[in-house]
């Protein structure tokens, strides 16, 4: 009987032990073993390479954190940083910002991770932000932290290009006036993007000593409001063909498609024009290097402005305004400066 009693007692102890391990309270305690807890939030205004910037420092327990970054450039311009194995801790879940570069910061636990979401006022592209980590600094009484720096877009104009002095270039901003062209999911109109880029191209060409003929410099129809497509297109060709000095014709457009997944840039020329092909190829190479978009290639097309101009001509599609990411890039002043400089570089290479 004593042996039986001892065996029963031992079984009871083992059952109690295993039940204790698998009770909900113990499970939750195990799950709560996060490596970091947020405990510090500070912002400051700084200068980075001459640009105004907002620095956001978020501190936490433990060592320097790991993180992942996701850009959400559509709907709201957001930057999302995920900190794995981290709890929100003492930091507020919502911080309103009034600094011109961010509207708010929200911090939320998602499973075992914490997500920091920043609503930005500028397009969310890599030129406009920088993320890094810093170790604990005992002397300054600061914990290990992640540092997010939001920078204002570049303001300076791109440099002039060599080899363009005295050249006459025709720059055509596609659409305009009563014709908006394609419209993106957030309302960005093709006619506004093409005009902005065309004027930046004009500015750099002029600085480079070139003579620039613009088919339009404001939001207007070139022929007349509500003109037929042929009248409008011919009016653009007439601007170019009237000046015998015109050496190149460039028409600037944005692409569109029913699926928002369509993406990339491309350049066109009229089949049979060797000089047009060379011009379109050089533009394509420079845009691919500067813009970073998927390169859809150099193609031929039966476009009216390519067939009815008397000088080498190319039509460029800067990107898909119907694509969420590319719509935000195309409306970005910094990105427009990049591609305008690339266009001018392509033009300069044509004359070398």
From TrEMBL:
Record flagged with keyword Cytoplasm: no
PANTHER family per record: N-ACETYLMURAMOYL-L-ALANINE AMIDASE, N-ACETYLMURAMOYL-L-ALANINE AMIDASE AMIC
UniProt cross-references to InterPro entries, sorted A to Z: MurNAc-LAA_cat, N-acetylmuramoyl_amidase_3
Keyword tags: Hydrolase
GO BP annotation list: peptidoglycan catabolic process
Annotated ranges, domain MurNAc-LAA: 239-348
Gene Ontology molecular function terms on file: N-acetylmuramoyl-L-alanine amidase activity
A single GO cellular-component term on record: outer membrane-bounded periplasmic space
CDD domains membership: MurNAc-LAA
Entry keyword annotation includes Transit peptide: no
Pfam families hit by this protein: Amidase_3
Protein name as it appears in the record: N-acetylmuramoyl-L-alanine amidase
Organism annotation: Selenomonas ruminantium
């Amino acid at each position: 009987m004593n042996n039986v009693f001892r065996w029963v007692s031992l079984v009871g102890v083992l059952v109690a032990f295993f039940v204790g391990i698998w009770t909900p309270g113990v499970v939750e305690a195990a799950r709560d073993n996060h490596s970091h807890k947020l405990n510090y939030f500070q912002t400051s205004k700084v200068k980075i390479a001459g640009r105004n910037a907002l620095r956001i420092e978020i501190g936490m327990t433990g060592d320097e954190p790991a993180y992942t970054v996701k850009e959400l450039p559509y709907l709201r311009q957001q930057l999302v940083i995920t900190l794995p194995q981290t709890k929100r801790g003492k930091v507020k879940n919502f911080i309103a910002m009034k600094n011109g570069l961010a509207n708010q910061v929200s911090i939320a636990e998602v499973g075992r991770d914490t997500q920091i979401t920043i609503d930005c006022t500028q397009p969310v592209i890599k030129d406009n932000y920088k993320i890094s980590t810093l170790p604990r600094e005992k002397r300054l009484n600061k914990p290990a932290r992640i540092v997010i720096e939001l920078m204002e877009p570049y303001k300076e104009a791109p440099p002039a290009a060599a080899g363009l002095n005295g050249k006459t270039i025709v720059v055509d901003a596609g659409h305009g006036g009563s014709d908006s062209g394609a419209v993106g999911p957030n309302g960005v109109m093709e006619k506004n993007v093409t005009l902005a880029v065309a004027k930046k191209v004009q500015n750099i060409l002029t600085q480079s000593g070139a003579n620039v003929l613009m088919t339009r410099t404001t939001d207007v129809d070139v022929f007349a409001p509500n003109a037929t497509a042929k009248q409008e297109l011919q009016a653009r060709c007439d601007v170019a063909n009237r000046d015998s000095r015109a050496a190149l014709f460039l028409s600037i457009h944005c692409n569109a498609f029913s699926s928002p997944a369509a993406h990339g840039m491309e350049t066109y020329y009229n089949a049979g024009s060797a000089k047009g092909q060379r011009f379109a190829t050089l533009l394509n190479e420079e845009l691919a290097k500067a813009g970073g978009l998927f390169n859809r290639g150099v193609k031929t097309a039966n476009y009216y402005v390519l067939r009815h101009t008397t000088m080498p001509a190319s039509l460029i599609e800067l990107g898909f305004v119907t694509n969420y990411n590319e719509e935000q890039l195309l409306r970005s002043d910094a990105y427009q400066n990049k591609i305008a400089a690339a266009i001018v570089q392509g033009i300069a290479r044509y004359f070398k």
